[in-house]
């Protein structure tokens, strides 16, 4: 090996003709990095809003939604067009008392403003950039899995050489969960809605227990179910008997012994004997929950209690 000469201050000074040693050119950092495809970089950018902020800020009243429906939606924090267009049609049915006719009214109000509900996500609708990112992620995961398997194989081989048994337990087989087969009819609150010839009834998992004769039905709550025929609403019991005549314009499910119904364009509350407990004086009303309901009158919202008293929101 050739001897390397070192130069220090005061000793072995470097001759003026000697050239300073050259460092090996470093490989540019960019060459060692894997650049993400342009499509992937584009996919990382936040998706633009579907509608302008001005449209999304429209209140339900400005959209033309009636007060009764506005009150029902407000109880679930839905107050603007932005709250609607950020939900799918299926999401809306999570609101207690919401039905198909209400959905059609909302869609018309949104369509009049050139808006609509959020479409259901589908695999085929994903942007190509997202698909490319997913493929890249899958490839990287495969490389990591191959590396992990190789390391695991080496570890097992080393243990075998040393005469030690492997300490890795064999994973238990994963069993696919299957829906439990019904062995007895469903309880009344879990009866399923069944449709036949455009009409609705109820099914207990084995038989049709309420014939499909209604334009709309709602699930049983507090022992009664709201039904609708020819734009009039009433209530039936689990035997199918009409216990409250179909006489109301709108009827919500019973909760805590009371139900909000609409008569003459105003909301009030009845009990299971069809007695008016809270008069029809409100423009909008929601079901009772935890001993309270929300009501609207003359543009003001308040908290209603079962005894009829209201604490108005200033």
From TrEMBL:
Bias (Low complexity) ranges: 39-48
Record SUPFAM superfamilies: C-terminal domain of RNA polymerase alpha subunit, Cell wall binding repeat
UniProt superkingdom: Bacteria
Region (Disordered): 1-51, 120-184
Biased composition (Basic and acidic residues): 1-17, 123-183
UniProt-recorded name of the protein: WG repeat-containing protein
Record organism: Candidatus Limadaptatus stercoripullorum
């Amino acid at each position: 090996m050739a001897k390397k000469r070192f130069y220090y201050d005061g000793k072995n000074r470097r001759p003026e003709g000697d050239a300073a040693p050259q460092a090996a050119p470093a490989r540019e950092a960019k060459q060692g990095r894997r650049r993400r495809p342009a499509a992937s970089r584009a996919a990382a950018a936040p998706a633009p809003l579907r509608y302008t902020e001005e449209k999304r800020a429209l209140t339900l009243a400005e959209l033309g939604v009636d007060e009764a429906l506005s009150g029902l939606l407000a109880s679930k924090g839905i107050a603007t067009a932005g709250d609607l267009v950020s939900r799918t049609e299926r999401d809306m049915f999570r609101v207690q008392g919401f039905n198909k006719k209400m959905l059609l009214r909302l869609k018309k109000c949104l369509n009049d403003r050139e808006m609509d509900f959020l479409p259901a996500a589908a695999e085929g609708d994903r942007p190509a950039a997202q698909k490319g990112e997913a493929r890249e992620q899958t490839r990287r995961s495969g490389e990591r899995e191959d590396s992990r398997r190789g390391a695991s194989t080496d570890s097992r081989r080393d243990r075998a050489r040393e005469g030690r048994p492997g300490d890795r337990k064999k994973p238990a087989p994963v069993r696919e969960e299957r829906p439990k087969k019904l062995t007895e009819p469903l309880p009344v609150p879990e009866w399923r809605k069944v449709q036949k010839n455009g009409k609705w009834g109820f099914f207990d998992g084995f038989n049709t227990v309420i014939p499909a004769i209604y334009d709309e039905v709602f699930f049983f709550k507090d022992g009664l179910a709201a039904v609708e025929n020819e734009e009039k609403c009433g209530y039936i019991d689990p035997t199918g008997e009409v216990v409250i005549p179909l006489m109301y314009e709108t009827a919500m499910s019973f909760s805590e012994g009371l139900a909000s119904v609409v008569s003459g364009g105003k909301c009030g509350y009845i009990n299971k004997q069809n007695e008016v407990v809270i008069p029809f004086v409100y423009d909008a009303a929601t079901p009772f929950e935890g001993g309270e309901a929300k009501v609207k009158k003359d543009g003001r919202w308040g908290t209603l209690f079962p005894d009829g008293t209201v604490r108005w929101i200033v």
